[in-house]
Amino acid sequence: MSYFRDNIDKMDGYVPGFQPSAVDVVKLNTNENPYPPSPKVLEAISKITTERLRRYPDPLGNAFRQAAAEVHGLSPENILCTNGGDDLLTMVFRAFCDENRPAAYPVPTYTLYPVLAKIQNCPVIEVPFDSEFNLPAKLASAGVALTIVCNPNAPTATVINKNELASLADELKGILLIDEAYVDFAEDNCLSLVKDFDNIIILRSMSKGYSLAGVRFGYAVANPTLIDGLIKVKDSYNVDSLAIIAATEAIKDQQWFKRNVEKVKSERQRLTDSLRDLGFPVLESSTNFLLAPTGDYKANEIYDKLSKQNIFVRYFNVPGLDDRLRITVGTPPQNDQLIAALKKILER
Amino acid sequence: MSYFRDNIDKMDGYVPGFQPSAVDVVKLNTNENPYPPSPKVLEAISKITTERLRRYPDPLGNAFRQAAAEVHGLSPENILCTNGGDDLLTMVFRAFCDENRPAAYPVPTYTLYPVLAKIQNCPVIEVPFDSEFNLPAKLASAGVALTIVCNPNAPTATVINKNELASLADELKGILLIDEAYVDFAEDNCLSLVKDFDNIIILRSMSKGYSLAGVRFGYAVANPTLIDGLIKVKDSYNVDSLAIIAATEAIKDQQWFKRNVEKVKSERQRLTDSLRDLGFPVLESSTNFLLAPTGDYKANEIYDKLSKQNIFVRYFNVPGLDDRLRITVGTPPQNDQLIAALKKILER
Q1: Residues 286-345, chain B: which have Cβ within 8 Å of A?
Q2: What residues contact residue B227 under an 8 Å CB cut-off, 6+ apart?
Q3: CB of B195 within 8 Å of any CB in chain A?
């Protein structure tokens, strides 16, 4: 006999990418930014007072909302702080979905979506991408309460343009969540759509472009009516004082952020070229990672061989993805190490 | 037309206690510890590396699990880290409750429970305490999936003894969550019950005894089967690296913790006596706050007058609580200021 609900018993939990405890590894498996966050973050953290630790945080993280609103040319009422982007995903499933209110999204995509749907016990409609990862036309007619488009998409690294997503939002009767966790590395974004559409929520993360995966900070951008509704389902104090301080300093330092993003983009191009030289037909990436089909070689075997050398990439043992590897763009020496290791593996 | 589920539209969100942004106030309204956390916390935070900020946290916070297990004489597999105690409350509602699986708890108690039930759309059975806040016998026969006993209870500050809760767990077919957020200030606790009962989950918080309300850290203690099930419904990275570091250092420094707790308990006695001298029949408290019936005076009027002097206590505008104030035990000077202000208010 189990004490849990049936849907919980029957599901598998989400398995996050392996987090090696050793520091001395080439870690290209969970899409962290290879460069450190703004020095202002560390400076602000080291100045935290015991008074701030002792007291509850600001429940809404207004210092961050103000800073993010200024960066984006929006108002603080358009912003909601979340404990990582995943916290927002949990909130939208709880706010919009249930047994009678399904969710839909194109696949392959972020594998947390179906896990959250199972916890919420809501049906999902998974609409396959075509081979070029265009927006599937069927998505508009699925008739669901919540449609999610991860854009740029993980793990394909591909992007759908803003006008297509605006048309989709226009056709939908429910919410369109655009998961922009990786958008810092893309050429465009959908923020401006929240002014025109009352059913669009944009997810943003401080983990990728801002190098703050360790502090768990994301945010929603939407019209104030949606933000107010989401506040009702969020944990009272979902983001802590240290995270608010770190994220606020990071988003204020746009110069540091942009320089880091440019460095990643430049290495992304170099890594793409090197992998193509090895015979892997890598797609163009709009993110900080590459999806690399491994051609004649078995992806899982390459994965194992790299792991043994303390080089960690991501392998998904699911149909459509099991013939390729997802590789985070690292620093130049890390990328060099990866390429050198791959060359040796392929020579054997 | 609303995009939200009906239950979300119809509910009011939980309203956390007022968090004044000014530091120069007497803040006795949200049960923070008036004393700072262990100096080792600040020391460890100031040593955080950009590498830790850049990388994802350990999904399970194993450093904390290990430290907590040692303190409690349990195994790390008995411990689950949560983003504040509230995160665990959210998890248990999602893991055990739905439309057909109700929750039950004695009232008055922590007002977040009904809010979480509404979000989960699960029925609740609220069983009134008697006038002495004994465990209501009806609780055992409610036949629900999740029974919650806040112990010591907020906002009554009263406690139910361990044997009674063991008997309750024995009678229940579902889960018994014992919310021990305030237990650091009580004379006993229920931790040992998790060895004997496969249906007991203990909630602990680092916000009260350990003075870390600002970092949002709580934990569950239960048998490993329950912990494994809860891991499936938790956010992948629900606690951040800074919070893990802070909480781990805090729980390791038992000497500092115990000294702070003793200081609070001693002031609790002094404040209780002073309030009784003013004619408020304050109940004995097993927490770091007092529930003070205001006798002939209107509680809300006293609350307003104190607020105007920047002295913040908590007033609940609900039947059974609207004739009293909940007052956090502060430092000796804070308590003196409160008593002096109350004396003047009552003289008028």
Answers
A1: none
A2: B77, B78, B79, B80, B220
A3: no
**Tokens read off for B199:** 């249906």
Residue B267 in contact with residue B338, Cβ under 8 Å? no
Torsion of CA A131, A135, A140, A142, to 10 degrees: 40
- Quick one: closest CA in A to B20, which residue? A58
Q: Which residue of A has its CA nearest to B9?
A: A229
Instruction: Fill in the DSSP letter of residue B160.
Output: -
User: CB-based contact (8 Å) between A21 and chain B?
Assistant: yes
Other Cβ atoms closer than 10 A to B23 = 10
Cβ distance of A13 and B238 shorter than 8 Å: no
Whether B53 and A37 lie within 8 Å, measured CB to CB:
yes
pLDDT for A212: 98
CB contact under 8 A, A215 and B145: no
Q: What is the pLDDT of residue A19?
A: 78
Domains and CATH numbers, chain B: 6-36+255-347 (3.90.1150.10), 51-253 (3.40.640.10)
- Cα(A60)–Cα(B119) distance, rounded to whole angstroms? 19
B202, pLDDT greater than 80: yes
For the beta carbon of residue B258, count every other beta carbon within 10 angstroms: 12
Tokens at residue B323, please?
């004739």
Task: Note the pLDDT of residue B348.
Answer: 72
Q: What residue has token string 């995270």?
A: A243
For residue B161, pLDDT beyond 90: yes
Q: For B225-280, how does the pLDDT look when each residue is reduced to its tens digit (9 = 90+)? A: 999 999 999 999 999 999 999 999 999 999 999 999 999 999 999 999 999 999 99
Give me the pLDDT at residue B16, please.
84
* Selected residues 200-219 of chain B with any CB under 8 Å from a CB in chain A: 207, 211-216
Residue A4 token pair: 């849990």
C-alpha to C-alpha distance for B118 and B122, rounded to whole angstroms: 6
Q: Are A311 and A26 in contact (CB under 8 A)?
A: yes
Percent of chain B with pLDDT over 90: 93
Residues of chain A positioned with their CB less than 8 A from the CB of B41: 50, 53
pLDDT in tens, B86-110: 999 999 999 999 999 999 999 999 9
Q: Tell me what the pLDDT averaged over chain B comes to.
A: 96
User: How far is the alpha carbon of B88 from chain A, nearest alpha carbon, in Å?
Assistant: 10
Among B309, B306, B275, CA closest to B289: B275
Count Cα neighbours of A265 within 13 Å in the Cβ-side half-sphere: 14
Per the prediction, chain A carries an average pLDDT of: 96
Cα B24 to chain centroid distance, Å, stands at 25
pLDDT of residue B24: 79
Q: How far is A112 from chain B, CA to nearest CA, in Å? A: 9
Say if residues B299 and B326 touch (Cβ distance below 8 Å). no
Residue ranges in chain A modelled with pLDDT below 50: none
B58: DSSP letter = P
Closest by CA to B156, choosing from B176, B179, B123, is B179
8 Å CB contact of B174 and A3: yes
**Average of pLDDT values for B177-200?**
98
- pLDDT single digits (tens) B55-78: 999 999 999 999 999 999 999 999
Structure tokens at B305: 């007058």
Q: Which residues pair with B128 in a beta bridge?
A: B107
The pTM for the full model equals 0.96
Pick from A256, A253, A244, A249: which is nearest to A219 by CA? A244
- ipTM of model: 0.95
CA distance A47 to chain B (A): 8
CB contact under 8 A, A236 and B14: yes
For residue B119, the model assigns a pLDDT of 97
In A, residues 126-185, which contact B (CB 8 Å cutoff)? Answer: 145, 174-175
pLDDT at A318: 86
